[in-house]
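Dissemination and training. As part of the outreach component of the grant, students in the summer workshop were shown how a complex can be specified as a set of sequence lines and then modelled as a single object. The example used during the hands-on session is reproduced here so that future cohorts can follow it. Participants entered these lines:
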Amino acid sequence: MAQLIKDGALTDNHWVRVTPEDDGIPAHGDIIVSLACWQEQKEALKNRAGKVAVCLEPGQEPVEIAADLADLPMVAINFPVFADGRGYSYARELRTRYGYQGEIRAVGDVLQDQLFYMWRCGFNAFDIRADRDATEALKGLNDFTVTYQGDARDPRPIYRRSSV
Amino acid sequence: MYVYQDYDQRLLDERVAQFRDQTRRYLDGKLREEEFRPLRLQNGLYIQRYAPMLRIAVPYGMLDSKQLRMLAHVCRTWDKGYCHVSTRQNIQFNWPDLQDVPDILAALASVQMHGIQTSGNCIRNTTTDEFAGVNPKEIADPRPWCELIRQWSTFNPEFAYLPRKFKIAVNAVPDEDPALIGVHDIGVQIVKADNGDIGFQVWAGGGLGRTPMTGEIIGEFVAREDLLSYLEAVLRVYNKYGIRDNKYKARIKIIVKAMGREKFRELTEREFAELKGGPMTLTEAEMARMIASFPAPAYAALTDMPAALQQALASDKAFNRWYHTNTRAHKQAGYRAVTLSLKKTGRVPGDITDNELEVVADLADHYSFGEVRNTHQQNMVLADVRQDQLFEVWQALDKLGLATPNLKLLTDIVACPGGDYCSLANAKSIPIAEAIQRRFDDLDYLHDIGELDINISGCMNACGHHHIGHIGILGVDKKGREYYQITLGGRGDKISRIGDKMGPSFESDEVADVIEKIVNLYVEKRHDDELFIDTYERIGIEPFKESVYGSAD
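and obtained this result:
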């Protein structure tokens, strides 16, 4: 069953998370690697067949990959626990500070009740935690129709929008 | 008061629906306890010692009579007939059932009330001076700015999972700190530039709790239109760099201290530079709309000290005493601001019943333009009472037991619910407050002692603000027994100052004796017109220690 929500719909996930401890980098396929792995093997990774994304952990800020964003079709941001909110700032920074247009995917402890906030901060893909029904979780994107603040999708706060 | 627009109400209704669904999923076993916990906390719902506790937001303390009547209805229908005014100017219910909470929130939403962000690691209710808008000393009414902060902080997507709770207060009075901005995560001081422009001095890094400290100025003068951009900048820094692996070090004060004010300011300025002039900048129209949301009520053209008031003051001693203690000067000639004391001996500090709420609502409608405010000292205020009607108001309040003339005096004790209710507490607060009130039951003596803040917290979390009491009392647990630690010299009046620890703690039945010894020493040592805090600051802690613990030799 699909666990991935992308741009508001369930979809199959072709990306594989690989770690350096695994038996090396697979020759083909789309992979998500750690920041350390990216920094050590950047050139090799760029030249392999298949796309590469970097996964940021809490404490690893977007500035670390700012110069590489053109080479990265996706940035994953990991939530080891959903209550660690640093990833919200990272996603928003990728969009508003670095103008990143690629996919920003939330991975890890990703649950229905945080999706609306994540979406507003610029995440557009959500790898829902394996034990949860992603179809149910999808509802979380529609919790609210009203927002006071501007966000990564629409920078205008409510007092700058004409149609409220 | 700010009048809800359609979209404000829609947002609230959507929140009610969201929480109803979350509660249902929790009760169905689809949400784990640890997953539901932050969700319910951000709706003000704690699981307490005997029952859940539900905290309802009262933005900057302002209530209207319709809301008071709804609170009364909730007390009667889903609780045990009373509720509690908290030190964040909020309202707490102590006995709701978890499965009733969605219905309670739906009822409250019909009068624009909610529990949004009254707990949890997010931006909490913004507080201010309970005399906002009527205080003759204020530079500008702080409430429009509080409301702007409320909207900016409500469901702000980036700051819903901060390292720890985050409290903002706004003060508009120069040289006094009625909003306690010195002990807030962010304090906003409204200031006036030489050219007459209003702006904000921004403090950061104050807070009570386990490591109490006062904040430091990080923004000397933030322009009006930049207020939200500047706050956003501070929150971005905190969200990224606040400590998350130790909840006792997670408040902003710890990183401001650890990295130093200059470094913190530099990081904030860097974020602010990106935001300044951007879409968050407040528009003239929005600032004007907010200011217009808090119009002066339709005051009558009156003069101060009308004959009716003079007569009542001359003929009724009890009224006279109450007038001088519980009412205060007003911007508008012919009016006074009246504080209702929720501190009569025997009443749990800050508690109010359903019937009392309804009478207060009626009084507000008849005498004070239908509005009431909660104070951070756990009392209530009728802010706009005609001086020629003060006597009638006093008679009505006296009948209710809400006219105890003890405002700011020793028996006007601030106390958290403590071990009688709260599962975090190490010790009880309420019986300690009552024991002290009973010890000082002579009104004449109480008035002779003068202003003296006593604050009691049942644990380190400091909901009773014990650090800033002139006398602070903190409940501690020693091998399963309740003990109380005393601090002296804290201030939350003109300035904020953290009190000094006196020494070894006391058993519960010793506390009233200790307070009496401290007060006796003050009475013995004071100079003419010196308040307790003045004497303390002049002679220091040693003489007080000696009077309580005996001489060191």
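The interface with chain A takes residues 5, 7-8, 10-11, 14-15, 18, 22, 30-31, 35, 38-39, 121, 151-152, 154-163, 228, 236, 239-240, 244, 274, 278-280, 282-283, 285-286, 289 of chain B (CB under 8 Å). Students were then asked to discuss how this feature might be tested experimentally.
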